[in-house]
Specification:
The chain is mostly helical and 251 residues long. The chain contains ten helices and no strands. Helix content is 73%, strand content 0%. The termini are far apart.
């Protein structure tokens, strides 16, 4: 017997085990090769297809999505920007349609100069300008007065009228309240700066004194001047029809 025979036997066993493991790994690798090749071929074939074949969005879907996105952006635009866009559109339309507007103004001017209709005769009358001014002020002053009463009535009923955001009086009261809250906070008092009270100022009463004193004081001298020194009809007879740009400039 050899003294190190057990060591030699152990080494041979380890060598045989490694050989078996390598043989099994090779067999496993050979078995997986067809699967890998198949997966590789699938990837190559898939990547060779055009992207449009996977997802083609119909045109009506694209149009609907575009319209929805545009409307969403329009709704999110603040009110000041909307009014600026409206003013720019108005000016641009005057520039674009200026020839048509100028021709229409010529027709209107000839009608006002020669027609026997009531509106044309009023236009040629000496009282036209101040009567138009008084009538316009009457409509706008009482229109705003009625709107104020609607806003206040809604506030008393616990509702917020849509026109309330346009009332300068309420904005002033809200700003005054915020300034008072800031002063309290500087004095060390505990205040809630995010608190928004329901501040609605009362509308002013109807100024009836203006209509029985100020209006006659303004109208009577003009009436007497126009009555004794008529001049408007002869003056405007020498004028030519205004253009669209001239009307905008005068306004």
């Amino acid at each position: 017997a050899f003294p190190n025979s057990h060591v030699v036997m152990k080494g041979m066993a380890i060598s045989q085990g490694c050989h078996s493991s390598l043989h099994m790994a090779a067999l496993h690798s050979n078995d997986m090769e067809p699967a890998r090749q198949k997966r590789k071929n699938t990837i190559v074939r898939s990547s060779s297809l055009p992207i449009s074949s996977f997802s083609q969005t119909p045109f009506h879907v694209k149009a609907r999505n575009f319209a929805s996105s545009a409307l969403s952006k329009i709704r999110n635009v603040d009110e000041v920007t909307m009014w600026r866009v409206a003013a720019a559109t108005f000016v641009f339309s005057i520039v674009m349609f200026r020839p048509f507007l100028d021709a229409s103004l010529v027709q209107v001017w000839n009608y006002l100069q020669t027609s026997p209709a009531l509106l044309a005769r009023c236009f040629r009358h000496d009282h036209w300008e101040w009567m138009l001014a008084v009538s316009a002020f009457f409509v706008w002053i009482h229109g705003f007065w009625a709107a104020d009463r609607l806003v206040v009535q809604a506030g008393k009923e616990g509702r917020v009228h849509p026109w309330r955001k346009y009332r300068l009086q309420d904005r002033f009261e809200a700003q005054k309240f915020q300034r008072e809250q800031a002063r309290k906070a500087k004095r060390g008092e505990l205040v809630d700066m995010n608190f928004q009270p329901n501040l609605v100022t009362n509308p002013s009463e109807w100024n009836w004194k203006a209509w029985i004193f100020e209006l006659p004081l303004y109208v009577v001298p003009l009436f007497l001047w126009d009555y004794f020194i008529p001049r408007r009809a002869a003056k405007i007879a020498t004028w030519s029809a205004p253009t669209a740009f001239q009307v905008c400039r005068d306004v």
